[in-house]
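Sequence dictates fold. Next comes a concrete instance:
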Amino acid sequence: MPDMTGLFKDRPTQPKGGRLTAVQQIYQSLRDQIVSLDLPPGTVLQTRQIAEQFGVSPTPVREALILLEEEGLVDVFPQSRTCVAFIDVQSAREAHFLRRSVEVEIARTLAGDIDGPDIDALRAVIGRQKAALSSGDLSTFIPADNRFHEMMYEMAGVGGLWDIIHARRAHLDRLRRLHLPTKGKAPKIIRDHEAILDAIAAHDSNAAEAAVRAHLKDTVSSTEEIRTHFPEYFG
């Protein structure tokens, strides 16, 4: 299997309104590395090693690992070891169902009242995706992909739902990371985004809904193919 995890490294995100606590920083860093596949399933996480890396005591590391365990991203075996969890397909499907349900309504809402500046802002994000794809920079492409959707939530006045769905979609995002390098996948994402935006700009709510459904179904419908190519990521 080709080593592609280096393409997907993300930086911890700064929470709105303040600095990261030690627990938040460790949690976010480990979560990003797990979702990006820099830490693949089965990787053993050493509490003391992580504590040394962040210059903290083992206590905040343990607290961060508890948060990751609650999210289903690590498996903790008491008195033994803590490992990165395998991809949970059922969790991915549930997150996909939730995301699709919300984004269909967002698209219909925006098709009813979006204005010119918002359309231009979304097209600018698509432009960043195109530039990233042209340069082969998937580490920039992925945040731009996410930003396109996040902006739609904000424009529809439900930005808080993005954070809720983000917290539930880690297993889905790992599937997406495995699927993205597939030939033709990244260009299709751009075409899908353009189709969604064109329908919204035309104030065609039915076409906007159809475009969102077509866009979001691809990764989950390809789960078995992804599992066949990357069996080591699944339990």
User: Anything to note?
Assistant: Residues 89-233 form a domain with the Four Helix Bundle (Hemerythrin (Met), subunit A) fold (CATH 1.20.120.530). Residues 89-113 form the longest helix (25 residues). Confidence is low (pLDDT under 50) at residues 1-17. Strands lie at 74-77, 81-84.
